[in-house]
Structures are given as structure tokens and as C-alpha cells.
Write a structure and sequence with these properties.
- The chain has three domains: about 70 residues, 434 Repressor (Amino-terminal Domain) (Orthogonal Bundle), CATH 1.10.260; about 60 residues, no CATH class; about 120 residues, Rossmann fold, CATH 3.40.50.2300.
- The chain is built from ten helices and twelve strands.
- The strands form three sheets. The chain has a five-stranded mixed β-barrel.
- Strand 11, helix 9 and strand 12 form a beta-alpha-beta unit.
- It is elongated, with a radius of gyration of 26 Å.
Length: about 280
């Protein structure tokens, strides 16, 4: 039976993991790094998981619990002194009542017998556990269900979509990671043509673009943004070529005035850039 996918309350689990790390003396600023080490995640993945904005699987919960030699039930909010918990294992299951089925997390204990009554029992069916009310004669593979949790899906906050247009892969990846960590959904385009093609079918809440792409500037692409469905999207222009003379200060000034663009020199300070972006989108 699979244990990997779960609708466990991500925010509640994240809060318990943070509390456990704090109890074990791990400073707040080091907790994401430690979680990434335990679960072999990227920093942005670990950051989202520790904030509760990324779902936890039962396998991940067990792995964290084992790393700190703690019972997994503690991280899912189940007291160890509840009857039967010590022998039970959390499993992904379907709670079946009449014709209706709900995905759930079931704590499944020992097999039932004539001397052991259970209100609900679980049966393994293929790769799925099915939980039903115990009625009549029970099959030999019926197991006691200690606890059942049903977690309705929480409404997810929409993550603003930001186009990152830069042929410098290193710079684009650094900005993408920082935006993702800050709660945005970045989409990277390595050429102006790819970005302009995307504009025809996608809507971007904001655009961050380099200025020079070989002999071509981003002026036409920015004009395309201003003609798009999201014409008021904030546009941030990045350039590191003003001092070298490759970028024309007068051309950039014209774009700033005419197309309402903000300009940052490379290498941009990402914290300041993203703070400005957040403020303009009302996302601060």
C-alpha cells in the first residue's frame, strides 16, 4: 500500500516540525537548511514545506520523525497515549460510507478478532486501504482503525506569475529561485522571441527583463506587454551595460518614461527588487 501521497494538514505539520526543531536547539534561520538535508530537497522546496505551503507526505513526516528519534504521530498531532496509537500506522485510505467515498488518513492497528471489537475496520484492496464501519462477520484481513482524519483541501493563495526574460542562465536561475522562495511563480524565457510568443497565450502579473539581447533591445517586447491583456503589469528592466556604453542611456530613459518601466542595474540586489515588485503587486 502506498503511503507517499496524503492530504495531511500541511500548515499544522509544518508548525509541529518547526517546534520540534526549536526544541532540539536548531536556530530558526537554520531550520530550512536542516529540513532540506533530511528530505533531500532544494532550498526553495524546503522553505515552502516549512511554511506549510507545500503538502507533506507520510513518508516525509516519518523521515523527519526518525531523524529526531521522535514518534511520527507527534508530528501529525496524535497523542501517543491515545489507545492503540503505539501499534497503529498512518495510511492513506478511502473512508467508505454507503455509496460515498472520502480520501482520508487512517491509523490502522492490529487485525481484529472475536475478542477485539472495532467500530471501524480497514481492508487492503490492491494498493489502497478501504475503511468501513464494522458490521456483521468480518473478513480475516480486517484490521482495527484507531483514528480517521479527513482534511478538506484548503483554498490555496494564488501565486503571482512573473516572467523572467534573460539569456544569462545563471542570473535567471538565481532570480527564479528567489522569486519562488518569496511566494511568486516565475517563468523563465531565455530569448525575447520566446517571451513574445508566450505573451500571446499566457498572462503575466509582472515582467523582469534584461535590456540587451545581442544587438536587440527589450523595447519591442515591453511594448508588446503594454498591448497585452495585462497591459498594466509592472515591468522591471535590468542592465549591466550602462557603464560599458553598450546600453544606450537615452534609449532606456525613453522606455522608462514612455512605457512606465522601472530600471535596476545588474547585478541587481534581489531583496530590493523583489520588495519593489511585491509592493507594486500589493503582495507585500
Amino acid at each position: 500500500m502506498t503511503n507517499d501521497a496524503t492530504s495531511m494538514d500541511s500548515l499544522a505539520v509544518a508548525e509541529r516540525v518547526r517546534a520540534l526543531m526549536t526544541k532540539r536547539g536548531i536556530a530558526k534561520r537554520q531550520q530550512t537548511t536542516e529540513l532540506c538535508r533530511i528530505l533531500e530537497l532544494s532550498f526553495s522546496q524546503g522553505h515552502r514545506k516549512l511554511r506549510g505551503s507545500s503538502p507533506w507526505t507520510l513518508a516525509q513526516i516519518r523521515k523527519v520523525a526518525e531523524a529526531f528519534n521522535e514518534p511520527a504521530a507527534q508530528l501529525v498531532g496524535m497523542a501517543q497515549d491515545e489507545p492503540g496509537v503505539a501499534e497503529a500506522s498512518a495510511r492513506e485510505a478511502l473512508l467508505c460510507i454507503g455509496p460515498v467515498e472520502w480520501p482520508c488518513i487512517a491509523w490502522i492497528g492490529n487485525p481484529v478478532n472475536a475478542h477485539r471489537y472495532a467500530e471501524y475496520v480497514a481492508y487492503p484492496r490492491g494498493d489502497q486501504w478501504r475503511v468501513v464501519r464494522a458490521e456483521g462477520a468480518l473478513a480475516a484481513d480486517a484490521c482495527e482503525v484507531v483514528k480517521i482524519e479527513i482534511h478538506p483541501q484548503r483554498a490555496q493563495d494564488r501565486r503571482p506569475v512573473v516572467a523572467v526574460v534573460d539569456r544569462d542562465r545563471t542570473a535567471a536561475e538565481a532570480l527564479r529561485a528567489y522569486l519562488e522562495q518569496s511566494g511568486f511563480s516565475p517563468v523563465v524565457h531565455e530569448s525575447l522571441s520566446a517571451f513574445e510568443d508566450a505573451l500571446r497565450t499566457q498572462t503575466f502579473d509582472a515582467v523582469v527583463t534584461d535590456w540587451l539581447f545581442g544587438d536587440e533591445t527589450a523595447a519591442a517586447a515591453i511594448e508588446a506587454v503594454r498591448r497585452s491583456r495585462q497591459s498594466a503589469a509592472p515591468v522591471f528592466l535590468l542592465t549591466g551595460e550602462l557603464l560599458t556604453g553598450k546600453a544606450s542611456e537615452s534609449e532606456i530613459s525613453d522606455v522608462i518614461r514612455r512605457l512606465d518601466v522601472s530600471c535596476y542595474e545588474k547585478p541587481a540586489r534581489l531583496a530590493i527588487l523583489v520588495a519593489d515588485l511585491s509592493k507594486r503587486l500589493g503582495f507585500a
